[in-house]
Design brief:
Number of helices: 7
Shape: globular
Oligomer: single chain
Structural class: alpha/beta
């Protein structure tokens, strides 16, 4: 079956949106993000909404990650429906987001799709998030919120990599510039077969 859906999964700040936009342009396919379906509290920057600040300040790191997992589980039926509809339509879809969990993707059998996971080391992700959030310019309270987001993202990255490896899903370390640079060409070739 000729693939018509590209799924790009990974935690926050691994470059899913950038890769998806590039692949959508290269293939002439529609691009969709799981963030467009429903958004978990998200990043506590550049301006933090009171509800987002309350979420990060009032919960333990374990609770924050648990809520993220529940959010992804709740989104999965809708995501699964969209993937099935786009796969059947054969129009072409690049679908990205952290709600595309390896364990859910592995359950999709017989559909025309190609999953690819992006990941990075804890140090790389922490530096990237601190740079984007302008961490060094933040006050103590805001740094604390970003620190909780970093903890959540690092935990998520570790779990995604572990699950993808266990399930035999493709992973690309975004720190490997050669492999990352070749990835769009490899995916385009794979999807055109």
């Amino acid at each position: 079956m000729h693939p018509s859906v590209l799924l790009i999964f990974g935690t926050s700040h691994v470059g899913k949106s950038t890769l998806a936009a590039g692949m959508g342009t290269a293939l002439g396919w529609k691009v969709l993000s799981t963030d467009q379906l429903a958004r978990h509290p998200g990043r506590p920057w550049p301006e933090v909404k009171p509800a987002v600040a309350d979420f990060y300040e009032s919960l333990s790191d374990e609770s924050i990650y648990w809520f993220l997992q529940v959010h992804h589980e709740n989104l999965w039926p809708r995501i699964q429906h969209l993937i099935a509809a786009e796969s059947a339509s054969r129009r072409g879809l690049v679908f990205e987001g952290s709600a595309l969990r390896p364990e859910f993707i592995a359950s999709l059998e017989g559909q025309a799709l190609v999953p690819i996971g992006l990941h990075a080391s804890a140090d790389f992700l922490q530096r990237r998030i601190k740079t984007e959030s302008r961490y060094n310019e933040l006050d103590h309270r805001m740094r604390s919120l970003v620190d909780k987001f970093i903890t959540r993202s690092l935990h998520d990255n570790q779990n995604i990599v572990s699950a993808a490896q266990k399930l035999g899903l493709s992973l690309v370390n975004i720190e490997d510039r050669d492999k990352l640079g070749q990835l769009p060409n490899d995916l385009k070739e794979l999807l055109s077969r």
